[in-house]
Every structure is written in structure tokens, then in C-alpha cells.
Give the backbone structure.
Amino acid sequence: MALAAWWRRAAALAVVAALSLTPLPAHAWSSKRGRGSGKGTGESVNDPVWEIRHILPDLDLANNTVTDVRVNIGEVAYLPCRFPQLSTLHQVSWFRRWDWHILTTGIYTYTSDRRFNVLHTQGSDDWTLQLKYVHKADNGTYECQMYTQTGVLSQFVNLHVHTPHAAILGPQELHVQEGDSITLVCIIQQSKPAFVFWYHGEGMVNYDDTRHRLDVNTQAEGTKTQSRLTITDARHTDSGNYSCIPPNVEPAYVLVFVTERGDTVAAVQRRGHSSAQPLLCPAFWSSPFASHATLLLAVVARAVFAHLLPAR
């Protein structure tokens, strides 16, 4: 395994060295890719990442430095790389460290994954790698490498992909009576999804025109998103499992039980059945083994009592 990894790395370095010594065609820079490709203000022409400069992490420009980038799943990741006063003379390549896959060399992309794109303009020191719609599998180390006649310069970026979790406030089981209002509040921390879907069982209720008693209100405040589901005049048909499912977020669930007004016994029974764990599976007692088990217990009990009682 180690030998195979060494050969992959050697092959990647050989390809990069060959590409770096290949002169770029004259028209290559006329089709600049990514942001800052000649449109907009003069600042955008000189700085290819001027629009995202404020969200890029502080970058240590020394050789073999490591930078951490954290992003939520589904978002866009920007992996910074700069080689001041050198990248204008040599081409820069991006690698995926765990499989030594060449992602980009110069302004060209060498992967079929179209989510990757290098942000660079002629004469600039920035070679920021853009990765759209980040997956959990993208988590790992990336290497920005410049091959020169005197050696190799590298900068490493650790990409940490985070999956936010949704949480519905309150207990996992909600008991209400008919006619009451049901309010479910779903909180998503460190994420601002464009929308939040609520499901009752298998059906989405956000845009259900047949349920006029239902309302969904979603608001984003800072790094937190809150979605509130309100059902007025609760009915028995409103009972069931409710799910808060934002995109690219672990969903949350809650069970709602609606009982007749004044029927407190049913609510208590439901709480008891849901919280108590049976000693044996109910299916066991309905199986053919139940009678044999009962007989065996009786025989064991008789033997125990016969042993404990004094002989006459």
C-alpha cells in the first residue's frame, strides 16, 4: 500500500513538472475563469477573490504551512493559496492529498468533478481553489504546490466539513387535547438554510392547502435559523410524527398525541407505554414458545420450593 501511494505521488509530481514547463498559449489568459475575470470594478480585475477576501482565513505564506477551513455541507468552500512574487513565473497546482488526484494546474482543471475551479487572474499571487456544493467526502487535506527549478513549494489546507443538526424544542413526545394549539419550534445552529420543510408522517405540510389551521414561519437570526410550526384547534387526525427537515441538515423529530378533551387516562397510558420497556417482546408471548416457557417456569418454581421447604 505504501509503495502504491509512493508511485501515485511520483506520477503526480512528474505530470505537474511537465505541465509547469509547458508554456501557456497566448489566448489562455483571455478566458479567465471564476470571479474577477475582467468584469466589474478595477479592483476585481487586480484581485480575483476580492468578493470573498473578507471570509478567507489568515494565510501563512511560508513553505509547508497548514491552514484550516471549516464549512457546512452543501456550501461553497474557498481554499486559499498565495506564492508572492513567484507564482507569476511558475504554474501552481492543487492536489487532493489522500489519493494524489491532480485537481488543477495553472488555470486549467484536471478533474471531471465540475465543482472544482481555481480563482486566479494573470499577474496576481492568488490561486484560491473553489469547491461548490461541498460533500462530507470532501473532508480532508488539499495541497497547493508550485514546482520550480530549485524545488517544490507547498501550502496545505485542511478542509473540515460540518453537518449541522436540527433540534425541536421540548420533549420528544407532546401530549395535547382536542381544541388546543400545537406549537413546534425547530432550531438549526450554525446554518442558514434557504428553507425548512415540515412533514407530518410522509406528507409535507408547508404548502398543504387542505389544512388551513396550519402555519409555518421561518426566520434566520445571525448563525441560527428558527422555524415555527403552529396548528390551531388540534384534532385527533393531527396526531403522529412531525419532522423538521432543512436541506443539508440532520433532521429532528417529535411525536404528537391528540386526545379527547378531559381524557387524561389516555394520555397517561400513552406516556406509560412509550416510556416503559417490556421485559419480553410482545411477539414472544403470541408465539408457540409461550406455552412451553410457562410450563418450564412452573417446573423450575416447583423444584425451588421443594428444595427450600423442610422435609417432613
Residues 13-45, 272-295 have pLDDT under 50 and may be disordered. The chain has five helices and 18 strands. The first strand starts at residue 65 and ends at 72.
